C-alpha cells in the first residue's frame, strides 16, 4: 500500500520534497493536507507553500497545538496527508458576508450523488458559533453528506492565523473539504455523567452567564466542591477547570462535552464551543472518562464503517483538553487505539473541538473531549 501520510520534524529536509515528488509523480491529480505544530508555524507554513507551489500541488493546512502519530504526541514539526485526487475544497473567511451560505451552496453543487461524500471541516477554534454554523449547513445539505471535523489554533485560545492554502494564511475561518466516497468518521469521548443537573439560564455563544439564574462561576464552584470535594477559585481556575468540564445532556441522553477555557470578571465562564440557552448541564470529571470503553467503541465503529481495518492508515484527532486532564493515560489510550486497529500508520493532531454524528447519517454535533478517527488513503 502506498504511503499517504508522513510526520516530519523539520521543513529543511530532502525527505519532504522527496515524498511530495513521489506523490505528484504517482498521482498527478493529488493534493496535500498539512497539519502543523503551533511551535513551528512561522517557518513550516511558508516553507510548505513554497514547496507545493514549486511542484504545482494544491495545498490546504491548519495549525494545531501539537501533533500525533503511532509513537505518541509531538510538540514540533508537521504531518503531510495526501489526497490521491484533490477534492473540491475552499477556505472561507467567516467574517465575509453570507460566507456560510456560500460554502453550503458551493458544496451542494458538487454533490453528484446522495450519501456518498463526507464534509470534512477544520475551523479556527476562535469561531464562537460553530454549532450554529453546523445547523445552517445541515439545513442546506441535510443527510446528503457525512459530517466530520475539528478545531485548529492555539491551546492558549488566543487569536492566531491558523488556516492556510497555497497563497493565504488566515484566521476566523474554516477549511471545507468534500471527500467523495468516504463514509465519515467515528467520534467518541465516553464521559460518564453524575445524576445532578443544572440549567444554563443565560448564555451568549460560548459564554455561560448564569446557571440556575445565578452567576455561572459561583454555581460552578459550588457544584465542583459538592460533587468532587475540589475547591476552584480564580487563581487555580486555569489549572483545575479542564478536569471538570460541563456536559450538555441532550434529549436522547447523549452527552456533549464543553471544556471551560476562560473566566470573566462578572462570573461568566467561556467554553470551547457554544452552549445553547436553557441547556441542561451536568459536571463531568476526568477520572470518570472510560478509556477502555472509548477505544472499544472507536475500533468497533471503524470496523462498521470500513470492514477489516488492519494494514490501512488511521487519521486521528485527539482533544487537547482530554490530554491535559488524562495526563499519561492519554498516551496509553492513543497507543492502545493504534494497536487494536492494526493500522499500518497513524497520524493526526491535538484538536480544540471535534465534529461528528451520533449515528450514521445523523445530525452533526460539536464536541469537546473526544477523539475523531477515520481511515485515510486507499
Structure explained in plain terms:
- This protein is α+β, with helices and mostly antiparallel strands and 378 residues long.
- The protein has 9 helices and 27 strands.
- Strands 1-6-2-3-10-11 form a 6-stranded mixed β-sheet, with helices on one face. A 6-stranded mixed β-sheet has the order 5-4-24-23-27-13. A 6-stranded mixed β-sheet has the order 7-12-8-9-25-26, covered by helices on one side.
- The chain is globular and about 60 Å long.
- It starts with a strand and ends with a strand.
Total strands: the figure is 27
Terminal CA distance reads: 8 Å
Count of separate DSSP helical elements = 9
Average per-residue pLDDT, rounded, comes to 88
* Helicity level: 25-40%
Regions with pLDDT < 50 over 5+ consecutive residues? none
Radius of gyration equals: 20 Å
Whole-number total of structural domains = 2
> How would you sum up the major sheet?
6 strands, mixed
As laid out across the biggest beta sheet, the strand order is 1-6-2-3-10-11
Shape: globular
Structural class: alpha+beta
How much β-strand is present in the residues?
A: 25-35%
